[in-house]
Design a protein that fits this description.
Shape of chain B: globular
Order of helices and strands of chain B: EEEHEHEHEHEEEEHEEEH
Strand content of chain B: 25-35%
Number of helices of chain A: 17
CATH topology of the largest domain in chain A: Rossmann fold
Shape of chain A: globular
Number of domains of chain A: 3
Number of strands of chain A: 8
Largest sheet of chain A: 4 strands, parallel
CATH class of chain B: Alpha Beta
Largest interface: B-C, 87 and 98 residues
Strand content of chain A: 5-15%
Largest sheet of chain B: 9 strands, mixed
Chains: A alpha/beta (about 375), B alpha/beta (about 260), C alpha/beta (about 325)
Distance between the termini of chain A: 55 Å
Strand order of the largest sheet of chain A: 2-1-3-4
Helix content of chain A: 40-55%
Structural class of chain A: alpha/beta
Radius of gyration of chain B: 20 Å
Oligomer: heterotrimer
Number of strands of chain B: 13
Strand order of the largest sheet of chain B: 9-8-7-10-6-1-4-5-11
Helix content of chain B: 25-40%
Structural class of chain B: alpha/beta
C-alpha cells in the first residue's frame, strides 16, 4: 500500500497534536475496547508505522461520535485518522466481509442493505390519510426536498419514521417532494468504512441529482445524511436541515396542531451526528415539550456529553470483539434509573441500537424506544 | 500458473422481497427491478484464481458472456487482480442452454494458454451447475465439480477437495490442465474498491461476437441448444409461511414429518 | 420398448437414497427400469436396487470403490452406447453434477440438470426445472433424439416401496485402461470443534426467546438430532450465551443453509439480512406478528418451551 510521504501528517494536521490525551479521556469506546486514539494519532506521524496501525482491529471500534474532536484543544479531529487507516484497508480490499457486503451493495444498489434500488419507494404505500406521496420530476419546484435515508426506506422497523414524516408534512401543508427510486445512499457510511472513492462518487452523483430539482432546502430523516450533505459534500449549494429543525419551525409557525397526548416520562437521547456534530440540541427538546403530557427528563450525560449508541461510523456492519457491555445498554440502564418510560431519539441508528439494548436488558414491558417522528405520528 | 476464470453477471434475487415476474413472452423475466451482481460462486472462483496467481505467478484471464452492463463484474475481477478480459456477446446467444453456453465459452478459451480453467459451481439464475463440466469435455481436459479446496502439488498436478453432501470432503488428484467448478465458501473474497474498479476500467476488455468466436448461427442460442426453456410459470407456493396449527404435540409432529419428507432429518 | 437407466449412487459403504427415488420415478417414464451400479463388492446394493428395478447392470471392479468422475464417465458411456436406453437419470447430487455435463457431451445427447419433475410427452421426456433460486419454474423441451440424459434433484420424488425383483446382470468393466487424469485420494471429515456457520447445511438459530443460557443445552440437543449447528441472533451473543462466531446478521455471518430453524427469534431486518439465502426457513415464535414469519416457509406460533421438547421427542422417534 503506497501511502505518500507525509500524507497523514498533512491531511490530519498531526503536528498540531500536543498529546494531551483529552481525546482518549473522553472516548466512549475506550472503556470497552483496546482503542487508544491518542496513541494512534501519535504513531501515525511516522509513515513507516501506518501499515501496522491499519492492521490493528481496534481502528474499527471507533463510532466516529465526534467526542474526541469536541474535546481537542487544538481543534483536530482525531477520529479522522482512524478513518484514514480504515481507507488503507479498504483500498487493499482487506476488510470484514460484513463491511464488504455493505459497500458492494452501496455500489450496486445505492444502499447498504442489499436491497434493489427499484424497491426504494415501496415504503410509500399505505400511509394513513395520504393518497400519494409526492415524487418530484426533473426540474420540478418544491420548498422541501426530503432525503429518506436508506434505513428508513428499507428497514421495516424504521419505515414508520418516513411515513410519519410524510403525514407531518401533509398535515402542515408543506410543499415537499421526494426523489424516488433514483435516490441514493448519502455516502456517510461508505466514507466511515474507509471507502473514500465510493464516498466521492456519491458526493458527485447526489449533488448532480439534487440540482435537477428546484428546491429551497433538503430535509433528512437521519442525522448521518444531514452531516455528510452539509459538512462533507464539496459542491452542494442547497441548505440542508434535519427534520427536527423543520418540524420545530412548523410548530413555531402554528402549522401543526399537536392534538394528542402522551402522558409519559420521556428522556431524550442526543444522536451524536445531530448533537455533537451539528449542534442541534434544542429543536428536538422543543418538539417533545410541545407534545401534551410529556414530562421531559435529561440524562446526566446529555447534549455535548451525550453517550454514543455505537450505531455510527459504519458500526452497523462491523462488530466489535469486545465482550464488555454495549454503550447502548448503559444508556438504557441510565434511562431506567431516571424512571423514563420512553427513550426518544431522532436517528434511525440510535433507534435500532437502543431498542436492541432495551430488549437485551429485558425492559420491554415497562419502557420503549421511539423516534420523535413516531411520537409526532401519535399526536397529529 | 495461468488461469482462466469465467464470470457471469446475474440479477440479485437472493432477497426474499425480490419478486421475479415473468414477462409477456413467457420466456423472459422483468429485469427492470433487478440489481445485477457477479454470480456468487463466480466471485469465489475469481478470488481463488487470484490467490493462486499471487502464490504461484502467472496470469488470470477473465471470460464473460454478457451485454455491456456485464463490464461491471469484469472490471471488479480485474480490479482484484485479473490481467485481461474477454467478453462474448451477440444477440444470437439468447436462450442458449448448457451446451450452447459452454460452446460459446469454449470458442474463446480454446486458444488461450491456461493451466486451470475455473467457473463457479452454479449460476443463481438458471441453476444449471453444469456449464463448467460441459466446457471441460469440450476442451478435452479433466474436471472436478464443487471444489472447495485447491492445492498445487507440482506443475502437473493439483490436489483438490470436492465438498459432498453433509460437509464431507472428497480429496482427489487431478492432472493439469484441468477445469474446476468452485463452490462458495472456499475462501473469503476480497473487496474491490471503487478506485480500484475505476483504475481497472482502463484495461481493455476484448469483445467477441458470433463471427469473432468462429461460431455459426446454428451453434448458439435456441438453434444451437439441445434442451430449451420454452415457458416459465409461477410455482404454486403461498406467499407467507404455512402456519402449522394445533397444540405443541401436533405442530411438532407435523414439522418432523415435513423435515423428513424434505430429506432434512 | 422404452428403457430407463438410473445410475445408482453410493458412498462409503452406503447406497444413497436418491438411487431408490430415481428408480421409483423411472417406472413412470418407461416400461423397463435398469439400475446401473458401478461398485466394488457392493452386491448388497445390487440386491436393493433389484427390488426397485427390472434389471440391474452391475460392474464390480475396484476401480469403482470410490467415486471418480473420469472412471464413471468412461464406464457409463460404454454401457449406454451399447444398451441404448431411451432415458438416463442421474441424481443431481455432488456426484451427479460432476458427471452429467461431460457425459452429455461425450454421448452427444440432449441433457439438462436439476429436474424437479419429468413428464412424458409421447416417448419424449419433458422437464420442469427451477430458475432464480426457485422463484419461478421453467418447462424445458429437448431436441428430438434417440436418447436423453437428465439430472434429477434429490428428494424431487419419494422412494416407493420397491417390490420388483429385477435380474442382476454382472457386466465386465468396459474400462480397460487405467484412469490417470483424476485419482481419488480419500474422504476428509469436516474438522470437529471448528464450526463455521456460513458452511452449515442445517442451522438451529436461537434468539432472545430462549430466555436464559441454561436453555442452550436443549437447543443443542435439537440441533444434534437435526445434524445442525447452533447459530444465534445478536442478542444471544451479546448476552454471552453463544460465541460471536455464531452470530447471524449484518454485523455477524451471512448464512445459507438448506434448513434454518429460527427458535425464539423475532426477525429484525438486521438479522434477516444475514439468513435470507436459506433454502427452507422454519420459525417458532410465540408472537404471531413477529417479522420472522414473513420470511418463513413454515411457522409455529406457540411457546417454544412446549414445541421444542415435543419436537425433540418426535425427532428421536423418527430416527428410531
Amino acid at each position: 500500500m503506497g501511502v505518500e510521504q507525509g500524507t497523514f501528517v498533512q491531511k490530519y494536521d498531526l503536528l498540531g497534536c500536543i498529546q494531551c490525551g483529552r481525546c482518549t479521556g473522553g472516548c466512549p469506546v475506550t472503556s470497552r475496547t483496546e482503542l487508544n486514539v491518542r496513541r494512534i494519532v501519535y504513531e501515525s506521524i511516522d509513515d513507516e508505522k501506518l501499515e501496522d496501525l491499519s492492521n490493528k482491529p481496534e481502528i474499527w471500534d471507533c463510532t466516529t461520535c465526534n467526542t474526541c474532536a469536541i474535546r481537542c484543544p487544538k481543534g483536530l479531529e482525531p477520529f479522522e485518522v482512524l478513518i484514514g487507516l480504515r481507507s488503507m484497508k479498504a483500498e487493499e480490499g482487506d476488510i470484514e466481509p460484513t463491511a464488504r457486503d455493505a459497500l458492494e451493495s452501496m455500489f450496486n444498489n445505492g444502499n447498504p442493505w442489499g436491497k434493489p434500488a427499484a424497491k426504494r419507494t415501496d415504503w410509500m404505500s399505505d400511509i394513513p390519510g395520504v393518497k400519494k406521496v409526492r415524487i418530484l420530476s426533473e426540474g420540478e419546484k418544491a420548498d422541501v426536498l426530503v432525503h429518506v435515508c436508506c434505513t428508513a426506506a428499507y428497514d421495516p422497523r424504521i419505515i414508520p419514521l418516513a411515513k410519519n414524516l410524510v403525514r407531518v408534512l401533509e398535515a402542515a401543508g408543506v410543499d415537499y417532494g421526494f426523489i424516488g427510486n433514483e435516490e441514493k445512499h448519502c455516502g456517510s457510511e461508505a466514507r466511515r468504512l474507509g471507502e473514500e472513492g465510493l464516498f466521492e462518487y456519491f458526493d458527485e452523483e447526489n449533488t448532480e441529482l439534487f440540482s435537477k430539482y428546484e428546491v429551497n432546502r433538503i430535509v433528512t430523516i437521519s442525522p448521518h445524511c444531514l452531516n455528510t450533505f452539509k459538512n462533507e459534500y464539496q459542491n452542494l449549494n442547497i441548505p440542508v436541515m434535519h427534520y427536527t429543525q423543520l418540524v420545530a419551525e412548523l410548530i413555531e409557525d402554528g402549522k401543526i396542531d399537536l392534538k394528542g397526548e402522551i402522558p409519559k416520562k420521556v428522556v431524550y437521547h442526543d444522536p451524536c451526528y445531530l448533537g455533537k456534530k451539528n449542534l442541534v440540541f434544542d429543536e428536538p427538546r422543543y418538539i417533545l415539550n410541545k407534545i401534551n403530557g410529556i414530562e421531559l427528563a435529561e440524562f446526566e450525560r446529555s447534549k455535548e456529553r451525550s453517550l454514543c449508541c455505537e450505531g455510527g461510523g459504519g458500526k452497523m456492519w462491523v462488530e466489535s470483539s469486545s465482550k464488555a457491555e454495549r454503550l447502548a445498554e448503559l444508556r438504557i440502564a441510565d434511562a431506567k434509573n431516571l424512571g423514563a418510560e420512553i427513550v426518544a431519539v431522532a436517528c434511525p441508528f440510535c433507534l435500532l441500537t437502543l431498542e436492541d439494548a432495551m430488549k437485551v436488558k429485558g425492559f420491554e414491558e415497562e419502557m420503549r424506544v421511539a423516534d420523535i417522528l413516531e411520537l409526532l405520528g401519535e399526536v397529529i | 500458473m495461468n488461469i482462466v476464470v469465467c464470470v457471469k453477471q446475474v440479477p440479485d434475487t437472493s432477497d426474499p422481497d425480490t419478486e421475479v415476474h415473468i414477462d409477456s413472452t413467457g420466456r423472459g423475466v422483468d429485469e427492470s427491478k433487478f440489481s445485477f451482481v457477479i454470480n456468487d460462486a463466480d466471485n469465489y472462483a475469481v478470488e481463488e484464481a487470484i490467490r493462486l496467481k499471487e502464490k504461484h505467478g502467472g496470469e488470470v484471464t477473465v471470460v464473460n458472456i454478457g451485454p455491456e452492463g456485464a463490464n461491471q463484474v469484469i472490471r471488479m475481477a480485474l480490479a482484484k487482480g485479473g490481467n485481461s478480459a474477454i467478453r462474448l456477446f451477440d444477440e444470437k446467444f439468447a436462450f442458449s442452454d448448457i451446451v450452447a453456453t459452454a460452446r460459446i465459452l469454449h470458442s474463446a478459451i480454446k486458444d488461450l494458454s491456461y493451466d486451470i480453467v475455473m467457473t463457479g459451481c452454479m449460476a443463481s439464475d438458471d441453476g444449471f451447475a453444469a456449464v463448467g463440466v460441459t466446457l471441460a469435455q469440450m476442451l478435452g481436459i479433466p474436471h472436478a465439480a464443487m471444489v472447495k479446496h485447491v492445492e498445487v502439488i507440482d506443475e502437473k498436478k493439483l490436489k483438490v477437495g470436492r465438498e459432498l453432501e453433509g460437509g464431507l470432503m472428497e480429496m482427489l488428484e487431478i492432472e493439469i490442465p484441468c477445469l474446476l467448478t468452485i463452490q462458495t465458501g472456499i475462501n473469503e473474497p476480497r473487496y474491490a474498491s471503487f478506485k480500484g474498479i475505476r483504475e481497472a476500467s482502463k484495461k481493455e476488455i476484448k469483445l467477441m461476437d458470433l463471427s469473432a468466436a468462429g461460431l455459426g448461427d446454428d451453434m448458439v442460442g435456441e438453434a444451437g441448444s439441445v434442451a430449451v426453456m420454452k415457458q416459465y410459470s409461477v410455482p404454486e407456493v403461498g406467499e407467507l409461511a404455512e402456519m402449522l396449527e394445533g397444540d405443541a404435540g401436533e405442530t411438532s409432529t407435523k414439522l418432523a414429518q415435513i423435515l423428513k419428507e424434505k430429506g432434512l432429518v | 420398448m422404452a428403457e430407463v437407466f438410473v445410475l445408482a449412487e453410493h458412498r462409503q459403504g452406503e447406497l444413497r437414497e436418491v438411487s431408490l427415488e430415481l428408480l421409483t420415478l423411472a417406472s413412470d417414464l418407461g416400461d423397463k427400469v435398469t439400475a446401473v451400479l458401478l461398485g466394488s463388492g457392493t452386491d448388497e446394493f445390487a440386491n436393493r436396487c433389484a427390488n426397485f428395478a427390472d434389471r440391474v447392470l452391475y460392474v464390480d471392479d475396484v476401480m469403482f470403490s470410490n467415486f471418480n468422475a473420469s472412471a464413471y464417465q468412461a464406464a457409463l458411456s460404454e454401457l449406454i452406447k451399447k444398451e441404448k436406453p431411451k432415458t438416463v437419470l442421474i441424481g443431481n447430487t455432488v456426484q451427479g453434477v460432476d458427471l452429467i455435463g461431460s457425459l452429455g457431451v461425450e454421448l452427444d445427447v440432449p441433457f439438462t440438470t436439476d429436474a424437479i419433475a419429468i413428464q412424458m410427452e409421447g416417448d419424449k421426456p419433458a422437464v420442469t426445472r427451477q430458475y432464480y433460486g426457485g422463484k419461478i419454474n421453467g418447462a424445458v423441451e429437448f431436441k428430438d433424439s434417440e436418447m436423453y440424459l437428465i439430472g434429477v434433484r434429490e428428494a424431487a420424488a419419494p422412494a416407493g416401496e420397491g417390490g420388483k425383483s429385477g435380474e442382476i446382470v454382472k457386466v465386465e468393466n468396459p474400462v480397460t485402461v487405467e484412469i490417470t487424469a483424476r485419482r481419488f485420494l480419500e474422504y476428509v471429515e469436516a474438522q470437529v470443534g471448528e464450526v463455521d456457520i456460513t458452511q452449515s447445511a442445517t442451522l438451529v438459530s436461537v434468539g432472545r426467546g430462549i430466555r436464559e443460557d441454561k436453555n442452550i443445552p436443549m437447543m443443542e440437543e435439537l440441533a444434534g438430532l437435526l445434524g445442525a449447528d447452533l447459530s444465534a441472533s445478536r442478542a444471544v451473543v451479546d448476552a454471552g450465551w453463544l460465541p460471536q462466531d455464531r452470530q447471524v446478521g449484518i454485523s455477524g455471518k451471512t448464512v445459507k443453509p438448506k434448513l434454518y430453524l429460527a427458535v425464539g427469534i423475532s426477525g429484525a431486518f438486521q438479522h434477516v439480512t444475514g439468513m435470507k439465502g436459506s433454502e427452507l426457513v422454519v420459525a417458532i415464535n410465540k408472537d404471531p406478528d413477529a417479522p420472522i414469519f414473513q420470511y418463513a416457509d413454515y411457522g409455529i406460533v406457540d411457546d417454544l418451551f412446549k414445541v421444542v421438547p415435543a419436537l425433540i421427542e418426535k425427532l428421536k422417534e423418527t430416527k428410531g
